[in-house]
Task: structure prediction
Amino acid sequence: MILDPRVSAANPRNSVLHPLFWAGLGVLAVNDHILKQTRVLPAALTGKLSDFAGLLVFLVVLGALLGVRGRIGRMALFTSVAGMFTAVKLSRPLADALEAVSAYTLLPWRLWCDPTDLMALSVLPLAWWLAAREGGPAVLAYRRLTPWLRAAGLVLGTFACAATSAQTEAYRGTAFLFNGTTRVERLHVYRLQNPLDCTRVLDAPSVWPGAGAFVLQSCPTLGPRDILPLDRGWKSLGEFGESGDFHIAHHDAGAIGPMCDAVLLRADGLRPVVVTWSGVSAIEFSGAERFGDNAADDHGLILERAGDRLFIMGTALLRVLPAGFEPEPAECPNGER
Result:
């Protein structure tokens, strides 16, 4: 056997030539573009496959692109990636911040905050072993294919890692707010301390239920095209597949949460408003990031901007009323005002 010196020589990009790398790349591509689309496997399983295969491919490709050599370089790379992966899976505010930043790029991300995804870190030893394979024998008959295989591995690996982030999620809920602006907007969400009396009509929030009825619950940051759940029974149904048009799978998913409810919203440029609804059935839907583009639904409100002012228009199901008062300043759960 005659060896190809160009492959035998130490080169961090040789790691993408290994069959195990191509196997991981194949799993990632089939999972994200076929299994998630057809839903032949549970969303929880396809989500975990994305984490395992995606982390393996990402580490090998990133190390190859950066030309990382030696144990110290790999240790720095792996520690950085594993640390960021762990932080995102444990911190919803960090995931939201990264999503907001990515909204200004050509490849916006959807990041899922789920501690069980940390199981994917078990793939690190295999990724390390692959990344360390900077040299190895190759039959001279395949010498001319070596540069092409390297290039294909890097290009396809980069595309697969980017494409796996462009996923949508399915939800079940009664009411939500869609950020239709082109900016990152930070809101203050106040919820009722006690259930509403569904036999009464809420027309003047300052009179009833009154300013003291609302307490600050959260201060979410919404990137462009993000959604904010408004009802208490909101539930994520997991990753659905690639981002696509807004689609309602079930128009009547039953009653979830209180039969009637109200939430107060405040933001810079938005006068405090109360969103209220009564007797509204939930829906199951996906493609929330495309809400309003070519389809909309009365379960969703759109946050819009006109100059320095923000406004929200009500729908047939969700009423939007001026609060008529300024809520008391309070500390957000993350310590910010």
